[in-house]
Amino acid sequence: MIMLDAAVATDVGLVRRSNQDRGVAGAVLCAVADGMGGHQGGEVAAQTAIDTLQSSFASQGGKEGLEKAVRDANRAVWERSLADEALRGMGTTITAATIDPNGAGQLVGVHVRDPRAYLPRSGSLERLTADHTVVAEMVRSGQLSPSEAAVHPGRHILTRALGIEADVDVDVWEVEAVPGMRLLLCSDGLVNEVGEEELSSVLSAASSAAEAASRLVEAARLNGGNDNITVVVADVLEDASGIAQHRGGGEAPASDPSASNDGFFEPLPPSTAEAPGAAKARRSRGRGSRRITLKVVLFLLLLAAVLGGAVAAVILYNNSSYFVTLQNGRVVIKQGLPGGLLWMPPRTVERTTLSESKVLRSNLAGLKAGVQEPSLAAAKHYVHNLVTEYNELPILPRTARPTTTTTTTTATTTTTATTAAGG
């Protein structure tokens, strides 16, 4: 039995504000849609096409099912655009692929407009699709050279797209599905930035479909990222569990016609049934999931370490801070910051016998706000200075009264009298 191990990667790019591409990668169906018709219209068209493609294909499958699913997707986009004035004129391109269970393991694809499909072969790329643009058709007819087409002002004018009319012509391609084969489906945001030589190199070097898809998206970004980028890479695999059954490892002998793979690719709703052999796809994806899970775990551990270090630094900073303040009319020393820091309120570490009445008035405002010191010893030294300053200030007894000197001058004599204040 033949199956697909597929991965999808997508990115908005470096210029566009929104991602109007959509992709799907599964063991049975892979597809890329590139929406058009403005910010909202392009996204709606691409999503509608992908949703309809999947639901329609699930009811039949195979080559005929895939063609019908694309036509159904076209109808869905077209009807949606008629129903909503804001979406009028929206459309999308699409390319999709599956393995036809009725075609002796054929890899079957359908295509409308410019998302492309490639197969790496012997160090080069075999292109499976043809662009449905005015310029592309002019090149095919010999009216333009490829170099002239690359800069032609009409190179983006479409001759086909989903949702523009009630029906659409669909291109179909087929190749023999050979285990080890790697299929690439992509939007033009990839091929406009990355040449076929680089595409071939990345596809050949990557150890998995997921790695290949991720590296291709990154290459498009590095080369400009002028459009949305969506990549689906699918590896053709031989299902070991199905082979074991055919070889006598299951209930049916290898020569028994009932052991054929009819029905393996008959898609059923995921919530109610699973196609035979899908366990292999699940195990294959599971290995990738474990790798991803390990990365997530490592990331979480690193994040925890960073957060733990940050928390420890905050606690250390708080515990190494002290301030002198007033509490219940007495001078106290507190650890922390005035007003507290995050979840840590200040705590009293020293209560002195120094009362508020024994502190110079000039120091009271600072004490009420909290006088910060770099250490407990420095805080204690500050308290000692408060006592010293108060004790060294010359204070007259309350019974003492200052004297007043009055000088009276006349034309003939000068009299100086000294009297006690209030006397």
Give a structural overview.
This protein is an alpha+beta fold. Helix content is 38%, strand content 25%. It has eleven helices and 16 strands. Strand 4 (91-100) and strand 5 (106-112) form a beta hairpin. Residues 151-155, 242-291 and 396-423 have low confidence and may be disordered.
Name its key features.
disordered C terminus, alpha+beta, 423 residues, 25% strand, five-stranded antiparallel β-sheet, 11 helices, 38% helix, single chain
Q: What is the chain-wise order of helices and strands? A: EEEHHEEEEHHEEHHHEHHEEEHEHEE
Count all strands and give the number: 16
**Into which percent range does the helicity of residues fall?**
25-40%
Give the averaged pLDDT, no decimals.
78
Biggest sheet character: 5 strands, antiparallel
Detail the topology: elements first, then pairings.
Layout: E1 2-11, E2 21-25, E3 29-36, H1 38-58, H2 62-83, E4 91-100, E5 106-112, E6 116-121, E7 124-127, H3 134-140, H4 146-150, E8 171-176, E9 182-186, H5 188-191, H6 196-205, H7 209-222, E10 229-238, H8 240-249, H9 278-319, E11 322-327, E12 330-335, E13 347-355, H10 361-369, E14 371-373, H11 376-392, E15 404-409, E16 414-419
Antiparallel strand pairs: 1-10, 2-3, 3-4, 4-5, 5-8, 6-7, 6-9, 9-10, 11-12, 11-14, 12-13, 15-16
